[in-house]
Specification:
The chain is mostly helical. The chain has 2 domains: about 90 residues; about 110 residues, no CATH class.
Length: about 250
């Protein structure tokens, strides 16, 4: 009010001006074509799943792996070696046969040595080892999974002697030449489990990757984070299984 007269400000400077039709509009990135998304998802899935499969396959076929019970070979031979050393300490000589040694051991407890118990103590790969007393000590031959002289992979012959200590026995039994062949791995029941695990993991990676590269930028970032978490959890699960196989194989 000025001099008794009301002055009304009719200016609308504080109000926003209506948007012009020529004003720049925010750009919205169109979704990637389905063909592109599928191609990217397939490539990522192939790389990641191949690594998972190869890690499991390497564990299975190794000389301390699950295929063919190879992981128990060095432990079984080391037990026999330890029993022979104990026998030598008590008698000053090694036994003529392994059965002679274990019959005496069981007789101390008034127990008759049965074929089942004897085979349990001297069998590797379901085949008894060949024992021979030598001038310098003894020699044990394991003819591998087939129980016959010669062969490759799991069928490779292994010879240990009284001159070998525990570390030498384990090192010799886990040499690269004892790796299972691909055919031998295929015939093992654990190979089916590996294929199933790799397939499930591949599906998880594919679906997660396909979703993470879809639609707008905001959705893309959120989906990428979620996909990364899902893949990480799946990878940790598969890695845990592989590490468990290694630890059991090594006796740790």
């Amino acid at each position: 009010m000025y001099g008794g007269i009301y002055i009304i400000d009719t200016s609308f400077e504080s109000l926003p001006e209506p948007a012009s039709e020529n004003a720049p509009q925010p750009t919205v990135r169109p979704p990637r074509p389905l063909r592109t998304r599928l191609l990217i998802a397939l490539v990522v899935t192939l790389i990641v799943t191949s690594w998972v499969f190869w890690s499991g396959y390497s564990t299975l076929r190794g000389p301390n792996g699950w295929v063919g019970m190879r992981r128990f070979v060095p432990m079984s031979l080391e037990f026999i070696s330890r029993d022979l050393a104990k026998y030598h300490e008590e008698h000053g000589a090694y036994p003529e046969t392994l059965r002679e040694m274990y019959e005496e051991e069981y007789a101390k407890e008034n127990i008759n040595l049965t074929d089942e118990n004897y085979n349990r103590r001297t069998t590797v790969y379901r085949h008894p080892v060949e024992y021979e007393r030598t001038d310098s000590g003894w020699k044990i031959t394991d003819y591998g999974a087939d129980g016959k002289p010669g062969g490759i992979g799991l069928d490779t012959d292994l010879v240990i002697t009284s001159e070998m200590d525990r570390d030498r026995i384990f090192s010799e039994a886990r040499h690269e030449r004892f790796h299972a062949t691909f055919e031998q791995v295929q015939n093992d029941t654990h190979f089916v489990s590996l294929l199933f695990t790799s397939l499930v993991f591949g599906i998880v990676v594919f679906c997660s990757t396909l979703k993470s590269i879809n639609s707008s930028k905001e959705n893309h970032i959120a989906a990428s984070v979620i996909a990364g978490v899902i893949i990480t959890i799946a990878a940790a699960f598969v890695g845990g299984i592989i590490m468990m196989m290694h630890n059991i194989a090594n006796g740790h």
